[in-house]
Amino acid sequence: MQLSYFQFVLNRYRYGTASARSDGMLLLCGGRDASGTPLSDAYGLLMHTNGQWEWTLAPGISPSPRYQHAAVFVGARLHVTGGVLRGGRAIEGEGAIAVLDTAAGVWLDRNGIVTSRTLKSSNEHDASSDLLRRCRHAAASVGSQIYIYGGLRGDILLDDFLIAENAPFQSETDRVPRSENQNRNHNFNSDSPPFEQYTNNSHETAPGFSTDKKSIDMLTEASAAEAEAVSAVWRAAKEASHASSEDSLSDGIGSESPLSETSPMADDLDDGGSMEPDVKLHSRAVVVAKEAVGDLGCLVRQLSLDQFENESRRMHPANNDQSYSSKKALNRQRSPQGLHKKVISLLLRPRNWNAPADRTFFLDSYEVGELCYAAEQIFMQEPTVLQLKAPVKVFGDLHGQFGDLMRLFDEYGYPSTAGDITYIDYLFLGDYVDRGQHSLETITLLLALKIEYPEHVHLIRGNHEAADINALFGFRLECIERMGESDGIWAWTRFNQLFNYLPLAAMIEKKIICMHGGIGRSINSVEQIEKIERPITMDVGSIVLMDLLWSDPTENDSVEGLRPNARGPGLVTFGPDRVAEFCKRNKLQLIIRAHECVMDGFERFAHGQLITLFSATNYCGHCK
């Protein structure tokens, strides 16, 4: 085996540093420079999508400079333990444990976010700080646990073995102090807040799933209204469909229309499958918690889902230049090139966006038209089924809840050069408008990001990206209310013209297909979706389009086949057998879809071969 080595030069020489690797990133932390001065900075070595490598400076202020320490990753958090200062003096007290949260871009100690290198005092003696007063020790992480062995404490060679766990926050009243003798060779996680406390600013659990009668009634009422709307759409589609389709589908169920046994796709079903490696989901599905106040404003729920997120790539380049300064006075831009930057500068503010007090929208109809035209030209060049490369962040329904989008961007990176757009793509699964209070902000920001990063930000169509639907569920009314009747109706019409050009699905590494609704009764191959010509409206008679945007899985894995859908006549639900057959026929690992408000923001179906995502919280007073 032949190994190749490459040289990447930092801005200063160092030794005695600690290094750790996570999710394609190598991070160097601390060390000692040529003059013997201990260092406190951290650099990540990252590869851009163009194949170029770059050292990027980690943000925030570390608790203390150090060298001869140890560092390991648990998820997106770099845990730094021990080390010494100039003269071999050991790091003591609060500074013995430090955590770099690469998702939030901050350093943390036992008291929270570090704002200076003056260590915070504590009235309580913590035995685990003494345990970690060491250098030249070994450290490793497995799952959520961190293992530390040996090292030096002064001139004493240590032979102890410590275990810490990156556990959920534990309140001070729940913590049981232990003596140093009790801590030796035992798990010290209950006495080590840096491995627990930083996960939340509050020990309150993120709000769960509300099942009160009022919320259920609201959701039922919303579903009934949607069913009435889709009935009209279905009637128009059925009238325009071919006679053969009418005969087979008029009962709302229809047949599966399986592929011919002699087709090339059928011939490939039993060939053992592709030899290409599987696409892995990242370590967490991220779901926004409900709207909160104060310090809980950016609280999010993190739910284990194999391997899902990509927070560790949220590093800020050392020479970062904020291109879209919020302080810059922005005049009305007449060219699409300047307009989308104006939108980004005003709306992409994950930490400090505030809804306009008077509800007036900052764009007029002329600017909306320019923005739609620029984005439309990009969508027209894209295929109906996008072909994407991993890694990709996938977002479910947003429904005009702009605050949810900002909290997700704040906590897990956002598409800008100061975020993670050079390392990861963004895919949104539709339903950008309706129901919520800020559909205009949601759709205009996503379009502006599409114009700015056309190869990295991807939008596909949802069932609410249709004039017949969003005329009834809030988007049309919001346009009129916030832009005036004349401008509002014009802008609403222009947005819906653009929606007809949106791609309808996306493939990730040819292994995962992402869509808004599902495969329904009519979709048996990806090629059926690829053949849909755009622009397309909901009333043209495409049963494939109706299934793609409107169908749902059955209630659970025990309900197989096809069933009528409570959303309305002509719509169906599909069972796990349909999912398994579709994945096998198309050599897919997984279907990712949105469209349904599900508990915890995601739900597995068909033994994990289908995942439903939903990114809007407190939807119709129900999904909190």
From TrEMBL:
It holds the Pfam family Metallophos. One of its GO terms (molecular function) is protein serine/threonine phosphatase activity. Keywords: Hydrolase, Kelch repeat, Manganese, Metal-binding, Nucleus, Protein phosphatase, Repeat. Residues 172-183 have a biased composition (Basic and acidic residues). It is found in: Nucleus. Its cofactor is Mn(2+). It is an enzyme of class 3 (hydrolase). Residues 170-211, 241-277, 311-337 are annotated as: Disordered. It catalyses: O-phospho-L-seryl-[protein] + H2O = L-seryl-[protein] + phosphate; O-phospho-L-threonyl-[protein] + H2O = L-threonyl-[protein] + phosphate. GO terms for cellular component: nucleus; plasma membrane. Its EC number is 3.1.3.16. Residues 460-465 form the Serine/threonine specific protein phosphatases domain. PROSITE patterns: SER_THR_PHOSPHATASE. Residues 184-204, 319-336 have a biased composition (Polar residues). Belongs to the PPP phosphatase family. BSU subfamily. This is Serine/threonine-protein phosphatase. The lineage of its organism: Eukaryota, Viridiplantae, Streptophyta, Embryophyta, Tracheophyta.
